[in-house]
């Protein structure tokens, strides 16, 4: 029994040991297998990782190359940043050069508003840098090149265009006719008459393709106005290859219409047609004191207008400290105001004002402290009479001088009236060109011409002139309602005042259908 027991016990041990061995061996094999699988998995993972990393690297390089290409193109391409920066720089320099040219143009206008070509050349030469100037047969257009880079073309109106290929108008081809093709009347067409304009334009190496306004056929441009335009500006477009160029060209029509715009030079050429005409559109602080203004006189630079009637006492300005002496509402004397001019002619300092009595001041060089020259000083005091000076006037004074009156009347009626001083006391007058002289004349003026004579004497019988009389050191010149030109005591009754205004030299008058002239 014991032996059996022992045998069974050892059998259990052996079986146990065998089982443990088998189990341990199996675990080792399983462990090895799993370790091997893990290592193989790692290898597979590593291989996949290396593969993915290589692909990513290749893709990254490709993307970087694309970005580099884009960056290079952005910087250096036709529309790249560097080219755009260079273009912007050139445009800035060109703009600065163009501004210099325009400033030179602005500084080259004369007092009549005309662009003076020689002055323009001088101003262009002042532009910094290398400046080359070329004119067209001594006239416009002018071509100016700055630093051999930027070229500009200047026309007679002061327009500045960038140089280069551009449409060109054949000036000799310009014709202006009536709409039916008939000739424009020699004295001009009536306002509102349509005119037909024809001319040709061309472009070297290119073709004219468009014009506004008008029609274009084989380079010939035709346009019919509405009758209201006084000038027409054409925009002409041409092409050279794939490039388009445009220019503007203005044709003035003023010479083809009956003249409606008048300046001082026009008036002195035909004074009888203008002297006495009513002028509208003139405003001044004392506008209410004057019913209307009339053209009284003109010289080469200025137009002078006069109040059409005597001014009321309420509108007569005082001197520095004194009011004018009131004899009645319209008859005014200078008893009081002369006290502010104790030195007489010494108070008259403006050279322009002295020319109104040129023979006294500029030719004979007289001076005086007589009462009549004191009264003259009051009448010529532009500071006092500034209440009649509007923004379209150079100055205003209390009345015309005797020299102005005689010149105006002579020009209008083709006579030879004169005025000259006989001494420092004052003026004498002549009706026969200087053959004889007198202190006064009756019947000197046309009583029917209300520019010089106010026939209605209910307000006053005459108006003071801004000149001393040779009749005596208390005598001032005046023009009377009975056609009398002579003298009277500065303190006398019965004489009134008619202010004179000198309009600015650039003033033009526009004729209206009712015969009046409006200040432009």
Radius of gyration: 49 Å
> Which structural class best describes the helix and strand composition?
alpha+beta
Portion in beta strands: 25-35%
Q: How would you state the average pLDDT, rounded?
A: 87
- Give the helix tally: 8
Fold topology:
Blueprint: H1 2-76, H2 81-106, H3 117-125, E1 131-136, E2 139-146, E3 150-154, E4 160-162, E5 168-169, E6 175-178, E7 195-202, E8 207-212, E9 215-217, E10 220-224, E11 231-240, E12 243-252, E13 261-262, H4 264-269, E14 278-280, E15 293-298, E16 303-307, E17 325-326, E18 332-333, H5 351-354, H6 358-363, H7 371-379, E19 393-397, H8 402-413, E20 418-423, E21 426-430, E22 462-468, E23 475-480, E24 485-489, E25 495-496, E26 500-503, E27 509-511, E28 517-519
Parallel strand pairs: 14-28, 22-25
Antiparallel strand pairs: 1-2, 2-3, 3-4, 5-7, 6-7, 7-10, 8-11, 9-10, 11-12, 13-27, 14-15, 15-16, 16-26, 17-18, 19-26, 20-21, 22-23, 23-24, 27-28
What this model shows, in words?
Helices cover 28% and strands 26% of the residues. With 520 residues, it is of the alpha+beta class. The radius of gyration is 49 Å and the shape is elongated. The termini are far apart. The N terminus is likely disordered.
């Amino acid at each position: 029994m014991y032996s059996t027991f022992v045998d069974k016990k050892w059998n259990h041990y052996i079986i146990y040991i065998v089982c443990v061995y088998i189990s341990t061996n199996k675990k080792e094999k399983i462990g090895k297998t799993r370790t091997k699988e893990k290592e193989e998995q790692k290898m597979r993972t590593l291989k996949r990782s290396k593969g993915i990393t290589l692909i990513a690297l290749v893709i990254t390089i490709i993307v970087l190359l694309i970005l580099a290409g884009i960056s290079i193109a952005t910087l250096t391409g036709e529309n790249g940043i560097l080219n755009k920066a260079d273009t912007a720089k050139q445009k800035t320099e060109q703009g600065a050069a163009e501004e210099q040219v325009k400033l030179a143009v602005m500084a080259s206008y004369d007092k009549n508003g005309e662009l003076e070509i020689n002055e323009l050349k001088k101003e262009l030469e002042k532009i910094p840098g290398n400046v080359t100037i070329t004119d067209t047969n001594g006239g416009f257009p002018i071509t100016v090149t700055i630093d051999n880079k930027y070229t500009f073309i200047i026309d007679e109106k002061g327009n500045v265009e960038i140089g280069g290929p551009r449409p060109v108008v054949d000036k000799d081809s310009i014709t202006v006719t009536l709409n039916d093709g008939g000739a424009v009347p020699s004295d001009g067409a009536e306002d509102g008459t349509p005119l037909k304009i024809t001319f040709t334009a061309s472009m070297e190496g290119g073709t004219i393709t468009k014009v506004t306004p008008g029609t274009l056929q084989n380079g010939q441009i035709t346009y019919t106005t509405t009758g209201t335009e006084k000038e027409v500006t054409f925009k002409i477009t041409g092409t050279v290859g794939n490039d388009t160029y445009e220019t503007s060209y203005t044709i003035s029509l003023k010479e083809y219409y009956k003249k409606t715009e008048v300046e001082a030079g026009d008036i002195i050429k035909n004074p009888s047609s203008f002297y006495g005409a009513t002028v509208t559109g003139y405003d001044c602080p004392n506008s209410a004191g004057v019913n209307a203004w009339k053209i009284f006189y003109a010289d080469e630079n200025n137009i002078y207008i006069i109040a059409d009637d005597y001014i009321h006492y309420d509108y007569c300005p005082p001197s520095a400290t004194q009011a004018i002496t009131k004899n009645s509402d319209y008859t005014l004397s200078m008893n009081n105001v002369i006290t502010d001019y104790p030195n007489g002619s010494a108070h008259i300092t403006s050279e322009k004002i002295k020319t109104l009595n040129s023979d006294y001041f500029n030719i004979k060089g007289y001076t005086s402290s007589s009462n009549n020259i004191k009264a003259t000083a009051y009448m010529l005091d532009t500071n006092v009479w500034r209440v009649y000076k509007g923004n379209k006037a150079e100055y205003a004074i209390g009345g015309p001088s005797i020299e102005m009156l005689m010149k105006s009347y002579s020009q209008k009626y083709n006579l030879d009236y004169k005025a000259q001083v006989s001494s420092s006391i004052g003026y004498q007058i002549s009706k026969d060109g200087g053959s004889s002289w007198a202190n006064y004349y009756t019947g000197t003026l046309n009583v029917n011409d209300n520019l010089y004579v106010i026939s209605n004497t209910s307000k006053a019988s005459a108006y003071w002139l801004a000149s001393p009389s040779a009749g005596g050191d208390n005598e001032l010149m005046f023009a009377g309602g009975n056609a009398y030109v002579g003298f009277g005591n500065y303190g006398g009754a019965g004489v009134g005042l008619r202010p004179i205004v000198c309009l600015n030299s650039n003033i033009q008058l526009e004729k209206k259908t009712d015969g009046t002239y409006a200040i432009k």
